[in-house]
Amino acid sequence: MFKLSHKKIIATSAVAAAVAFAGCLGSNPDASSSSEGSTKYVASHTYDFNGKKVIDGGVYYPVVDGKRGPYYVNEQASRIAYNKGREALPVEIKAWDVDVMYNGPFPKGHGTVGEGEEIYEEKCVACHGDFGSGAANIGIYPALSKGNAYELHETLKNQRLNPDDDGPIRVFGSYWPYPSTAWWYIKTGMPHPHPKSLTNNEVYALVAYMLSINELKVDGEVVEDEDFELNQDNFGKIEMPNVNGFIPNLNGPNGTDNIRKLLNTPHEYGAKTLADGRCMHDCLKEVKVQHITIEQKNFLPPLSEVRDLPKEENGGGAEAKAKATYEASCAMCHDSGAADAPIIGNKAQWAKYIKEGMDTVYKKGIEGVGAMPPKGGTTLSDAEFKSVVDYIVGKSK
Ligand code: HEC
Ligand code: HEC
User: Fold this and answer.
1) Other C-beta atoms within 10 Å of 153: how many?
2) Which atom of ligand 1 is nearest the CA belonging to 171?
């Protein structure tokens, strides 16, 4: 482990983050033109500005112009060459750049519900279930519909105010504010085993099918007919029930006022006030939020210097360690009896060794005997080796 200044020594994850952030902040970390050659720094921890050792990956970048906060890129660090491939070509970036914004313009293409259903049956049903019902038994393949989206939307009402209500159902139809996300998600990520294999027309057809199984409306009409065609012109007219469900709306010139309004009406976000008349304790009195300030400068909370791992429980940790070593270094002979090694757990076989006394057993194991290489071929310390012997013998008594 080298000790370098905090500027150079950086945990790998922090470096990756720094490089990733570089793009967002518009600085230009040109790793390939490094003046420091291809030296690789492998560090498991970092130093903060006071030279104290801090947890892995904890790095602060100085606030340089009052705007760039803790993520300001440490250019010194990003000049080191990391041998992590080459720069992406513009065409490659373009291939990934399939952003579809909620307000368009939408990609060119078209597809009908019927076409979508065919593709769905072929490429999606195995994971997402009949009519998008999901694979409930597995739990990892999300449902794409649970029925009529507008009715299900009702289930999103604040449960803290109505604790007896059934849980909210958050599927595409009832929960997602915009359908453009589905278009983008399917185009970029689905079908899971072959992402990016679908044409624009196929994606339109699949989204059209998703509209039909969620009973969503386009321009006032519920999508039911299998000849219904979705395309770049009518995509913006899909009526998602939860389009205004995410509050507060931070966009636009009234963003700050919107937050203020929200914070002044605690029941909107589930807190119980005295005014609700039901509150028993810890009730919020009237709240008046006048100022919302986001402090940009001096945003340097202390980094943790604690590097403790969770405590091992009552020696159970030691046994687990011996077991792991056994499995990695001894099991290949002692599990199977290869080379006539005594088999772990076989009392009769081990009794012969144990009756010589444990000191002899340790000694022979350490020095090697017959086909048993010294310390089983490991570089364990004597004490570590003995604890693995104890483990084997313990299982074999
Ligand atoms: C091999 C299994 C598999 C196949 C086949 C598959 N998906 Fe998926 N799909 C998944 C998994 C897993 C997720 C969840 C991914 C996650 O949450 O990270 C998912 C998520 C989705 C979502 C987001 C749902 C949500 O509410 O988060 C959509 C939409 C979707 N898939 C559509 C499709 C379509 C359309 C097809 C057919 C072209 C398809 N999938 C084929 C496994 C699959
Ligand atoms: C390459 C196969 C091999 C590996 C790996 C191996 N052993 Fe052995 N071990 C043997 C054989 C064979 C014997 C029986 C030697 C004899 O009696 O001639 C033996 C015997 C022993 C004995 C009894 C020694 C005595 O004579 O009293 C102990 C204790 C032992 N092994 C522990 C271990 C431990 C602990 C490991 C892992 C760290 C390990 N062995 C890895 C093959 C192996």
Assistant:
1) 18
2) 26
For 118, the token pair is 């065919």
CA–centroid distance for 146 within its chain: 26
CA atoms within 13 A on the CB side of 309: 3
324 C-beta closer than 6 A to ligand 2: no
**Do residues 44 and 307 touch, judged by C-beta distance below 8 A?**
no
Instruction: Give the number of other CB atoms < 10 A from CB of residue 350.
Output: 20
What ligand has the least distance to the C-alpha of 111?
Answer: 1
Give how far the C-alpha of residue 366 lies from the chain's centroid of Cα atoms, to the nearest Å. Answer: 45
Q: With contact defined as beta carbons under 8 Å apart, do 31 and 78 qualify?
A: yes
What's the CA gap between 259 and 264, in Å, rounded? 9
211 vs 128: CA distance, rounded Å: 15
Of the ligands numbered here, which is closest to the C-alpha atom of 203?
A: 1
Query: pLDDT tens digits for 18-51?
Result: 333 332 322 223 333 333 333 333 344 455 556 6
Distances in whole angstroms, Cα of residue 263 to Cα of each of 73, 97, 243, 249, 373: 34, 37, 21, 13, 71
Ligand 1 binding pocket (C-beta < 6 A) is 123-124, 126-128, 140-142, 144, 171-172, 182, 185-186, 190-193, 206
| HSE, side-chain direction, 13 A CA sphere, residue 14 | 29
Tell me the per-residue pLDDT of 214-252, one tens digit each, with 9 for 90 and over. Answer: 999 999 999 999 999 999 999 999 999 998 887 666 666
